[in-house]
Amino acid sequence: MNTIIRKIRPEEHGLLREFLYQAIYLPEGVEPPPRSVVDLPELQIYIADFGTRPGDHCLIAEVEEKVVGAAWSRIMEDYGHIDNDTVSLAISLLPEHRGLGVGTRLLHGLLLLLRENGYLRTSLSVQKENPALRLYERVGFRIAAEQGTEYLMLRDIAQAP
Structure pTM? Predict the structure, then answer.
């Protein structure tokens, strides 16, 4: 399977709606919410008018001309917000492409892209039981705070990923 990691094109920004939905962690046995959940203001902050705000950067993973994953960032007051100089990060893959190393490649690529654009650190929020927590720890994120069932994680990106 040949996976291409590349910058998102402006005409593809609409794809972030699906990847935002895919980013919702669902514990085993929990019924998925309706797709309209991404229209809630607390989730729209991740994708509304993408490409027009500070820190808006996105890489996508493409397999056989199909976009199968996205990793994106923006400065926003989301669940992973630290301050107005720290970009918040989101990443998700279609379920059948998880666990194959694609997320690691996307994350490394986005960290490098952010570093090239002068950002010193990035943050994210992850539920404690989400298996993605191990990925974040492997690429150098550390737990900055505990917020109920979630961790607020921080990654210094001044050094190469």
Answer: 0.92
